[in-house]
Specification:
Elements: E1 2-9, H1 19-33, E2 40-42, E3 47-51, H2 58-66, E4 71-81, H3 84-94, E5 99-107, H4 116-130, E6 134-136, E7 143-149, E8 154-158, E9 162-163, E10 175-179, H5 185-194, E11 199-206, H6 213-230, E12 234-239, H7 241-250, H8 256-275, E13 279-281, H9 294-301, E14 308-309, H10 317-327, H11 330-333, H12 355-362, H13 367-375, E15 379-382
Parallel strand pairs: 5-6, 5-7, 10-11, 10-13, 11-12, 13-14
Antiparallel strand pairs: 1-3, 1-4, 2-3, 4-8, 4-9, 7-8, 12-15
């Protein structure tokens, strides 16, 4: 009786003739997640089976695999020869001695002498005979005992299902540049877009010496947490200190945030072209703060030609906080270190900037020189 972990995928089932590509990427991501842990992985039809692993690390393996996007459910079970006596002994070993239960069988091997209903009836009947305190409830059982008869003369026997991360395998939906500020929103935005299969690089803007190194370390920790879901991550760090000083010196105070975000978008687009990223990803939510109105977003979008994805655009703050707690970034995000957007913060930021007025104010700045100067400060950290 060999202990195994069974992994099932999500939407890959719907991919038709392209399914093989998605399955290959998904398996590669599963293997990367288990780097450093002894194991073997095989792919019977429609699922993956982890075998020959260190059973003392089973919980760690499940925790790692649950973070791999594309995972629908996992089960810890046993791989046994496909004969009824062995199957029954294995089911008996994981069955409760009291309460309600039902047996569910998937007969992948159509040559097996009993069909699914016959297997359910025989195994269930023998359990009832051996455990008088057990009762069958096919509608709302306390325990479901699952049997999967495979084509290779083996059977998988397992109890419940553990929910996975869902989504699509990272690496199947292009590459994006995530603007990672250090707040609550942007890590959640990165998580959600990675869940749809996108590879991410991070981009963080700092204003040293107006912001301190603790603020940067906080962002690096957020990138490290996100990398657990994305099979690693590169974080690009760029200084916008001089840009902010120039805006503060030459432009209307109320336009500070609007103009700064336009510079951020320009820098992000340049890095996208250098790294092969196809879009910019932000944590903006419509109307959440002054710069996140539709007019503010229009002003930002006007300086780039690539798509800008905003996964949180329709989310309430409470919904974003819930997801932040779920993915493990909330406690880091709320650490009280200032980011670049709090430097030279205007008392009354422009809520609905008019594009023509913003462009007119920007004419007082040497935009290209400031962008190039910022790019020259680029540092990259790998997680």
């Amino acid at each position: 009786m060999e202990k195994v972990i069974i992994v099932r995928y999500c939407e890959i089932h719907l991919k038709g003739k392209n399914r093989g590509y998605f399955e290959k990427v998904f398996m590669n991501n599963l293997e990367k997640a288990l780097t450093g842990i002894r194991h073997e992985m095989h792919k019977p039809s429609g699922r993956y089976v982890v075998e020959n692993f260190d059973e003392e690390r089973a919980d760690e393996i499940v925790e790692r695999l649950c973070k791999v996007f594309g995972t629908h459910t996992l089960s810890i079970g046993y791989k046994v020869p496909a004969d009824m006596q062995t199957i029954y002994q294995t089911v008996k070993a994981i069955a409760p001695s009291e309460g309600t239960f039902k047996v569910e069988t998937n007969r992948g091997d159509k040559k097996f002498p009993l069909n699914s209903m016959q297997i359910n009836a025989e195994i269930g009947g023998r359990l009832l005979s051996e455990f008088p305190a057990l009762r069958v409830d096919v509608h709302h059982p306390q325990t479901v005992l699952n049997i999967d008869i495979r084509e290779n003369g083996t059977a998988l026997v397992f109890g419940g299902f553990i929910k996975g991360a869902g989504g699509m395998p990272v690496g199947t939906a292009g590459k994006g540049m995530l603007l990672l500020s250090g707040g609550i929103d942007s890590p959640v935005a990165g998580y959600m877009i990675a869940k749809r299969g996108m590879v991410l690089e991070g981009l963080h803007f700092h204003s040293y010496p107006y912001t301190n190194m603790q603020a940067r370390e906080k962002v690096e920790e957020l990138a490290r947490i996100l990398s657990g879901y994305t099979n690693g991550m590169l974080l690009n760090v760029v200084s916008v200190t001089h840009i902010q000083e120039e805006i503060h010196k030459h432009c209307p105070e109320e336009m500070m945030i609007t103009l700064l975000r336009r510079f951020m978008m320009r820098i992000a687009e340049r890095l996208c072209k250098q790294t092969g990223a196809q879009c910019i990803v932000t944590g903006e939510s419509l109307g959440q703060v002054a710069s996140q109105t539709i007019e503010g977003m229009t002003s930002s979008n006007a300086v780039v030609t690539i798509p800008v994805l905003r996964p949180l655009v329709g989310f309430d703050k409470t919904e974003i906080i819930e997801r932040s707690r779920m993915i493990g970034t909330f406690e880091t995000s709320i650490q009280p270190f200032e980011d670049c957007c709090t430097v030279f913060l205007p008392k009354h930021p422009l809520i609905r900037p008019k594009l023509a007025e913003v462009e007119a104010a920007e004419e007082k700045l040497d935009v290209e020189a400031l962008v190039q100067e910022a790019l020259a400060t680029l540092e990259t950290v790998k997680f």
